[in-house]
Design a protein that fits this description.
Length: 394
């Protein structure tokens, strides 16, 4: 990649135009004087800002297009991947509960190169409280499918469920520690069930997210030892001390601020406490993972989430941290998260040529994953091109 204004990490300045050279998917040279070997396909950044590839730490593959992921036509699936994820800059996503038959098949087709897309790490099916499937899922799911949704009543059942999911390919665990069984009515998961599920997940080396919803669901999640909250509690009253405790323990939060406004209400009496809870969590040293809840949220544009994060006082550097270094460290992927020598060439090219503001993160020019262009005008027109394939040298 040539003429790139590199933003290596949130704590470093944006560079003057430079060349990034990758080989075998890994960054091997960065600088203004880098010589590009003859025959190497080149992506011209044209002075645009380039960051490490973005992560979305809360997605779902539950829309109808994904039901055919195992055998569905690439001509149907690729435009959906482009619009939902790639054109938003994402090189890695965390699926926090979808049908694993679809999600795992989609992930395999991406990794094989049949489809272009981000890396997908899935939680498989979420775990619900006993007789506590959320009403918005229950209303849209056939009864015979609901029979197979895991809602363990005992600690032993929770352990067995998590073990089976990890053996089946899940790289995360998702608990509905607070489940909306009816509008305004939240059923918490039993403490012992949550604790057993988390212990089993940690024993198997996977991170645990919780959907907290309210005070009771947040208390179960934090006291049981989750690693991250998949949302700010939307019934935030009384959660202040719990969120401070979460911050002190290194528990992360995925805000999903725009999702609440887009799917519930924009009334300030509802939105303001959610924003204040996140503001206080960050003020207590809490760490944020970017996520949108896309898949449940039908809107794919990320501008609303970035604007909301800016509105609670997050700087562009803090937003970049939530998109790159923080999720990479959280999941334990030391080969990504920053633009530096030896790191995987997962890169997001923004449209802007200036220091980005919050809205600029939603305006993506192109996406590189493992040294391969997976999104951009050239990709859509001609298919993916390697950035670093020097085998073309005559």
């Amino acid at each position: 990649m040539t003429d790139a204004r590199v933003w290596p990490s949130p704590d470093e300045p944006i560079s003057e135009p430079a060349t990034i050279l990758a080989r075998d998917g890994v960054i091997v040279e960065i600088g203004p004087g880098v010589s590009v070997p003859a025959g190497t396909p080149v992506i011209a950044a044209a002075g645009r800002v380039v960051t490490s590839g973005f992560w979305n730490c809360h997605v779902h593959f539950t829309q109808g297009v994904w039901r055919g992921s195992r055998r569905g036509a690439a001509s149907t699936l690729q435009p959906a991947l482009d619009d939902m994820l790639l054109r938003r800059g994402f090189t890695t996503v965390l699926d926090l509960s979808s049908d694993p038959r679809n999600t795992l098949a989609l992930a395999r087709r991406i990794e094989s190169g049949e489809l272009r897309g981000p890396a997908i790490i899935t939680a498989g099916s979420g775990l619900y409280p006993w007789r506590g499937i959320p009403y918005y899922i229950r209303e849209n799911t056939p009864w015979y499918v609901r029979l197979f949704m895991p809602a363990p009543a005992t600690a032993g059942g929770a352990r067995r469920t998590v073990a089976a999911q990890v053996r089946g390919g899940a790289g995360l665990t998702k608990l509905f520690t607070g489940s909306y069984v009816a509008p305004g009515e939240v059923k918490p998961m039993r403490d012992a069930v949550a604790r057993a599920a988390i212990e089993e997940a940690h024993r198997r080396g996977v991170r645990v997210f919780a959907h907290p919803s309210n005070l009771a669901g947040t208390a179960v999640a934090i006291e049981a030892g989750v690693d991250a909250l998949a949302h700010v509690p939307d019934q935030a009253d009384g959660t202040e001390d719990l969120l401070r405790a979460a911050a002190s323990r290194g528990i992360r939060i995925v805000p999903t601020l725009h999702m609440f406004a887009a799917t519930v209400t924009t009334d300030e009496s509802y939105i303001a406490p959610i924003h204040q809870a996140l503001h206080d969590f960050i003020g207590a040293g809490g760490r944020v993972l970017f996520g949108t809840d896309v898949g449940y949220l039908t809107e794919h544009d990320t501008h609303g989430e970035f604007t909301a994060m800016d509105g609670v006082g997050m700087s562009p550097a803090e937003i970049l941290r939530s998109l790159t270094t923080e999720p990479a460290a959280f999941i334990g992927h030391a080969d990504v998260g920053t633009v530096e020598l030896g790191r995987r060439a997962d890169l997001t090219i923004l449209q802007t040529r200036d220091a980005p503001d919050a809205g600029d993160f939603a305006r993506v020019h192109a996406v590189i994953r493992g040294g391969r262009a997976v999104y951009g005008d050239d990709v859509r027109e001609r298919g993916p091109r390697l950035v670093d394939d020097t085998r073309q040298v005559p």
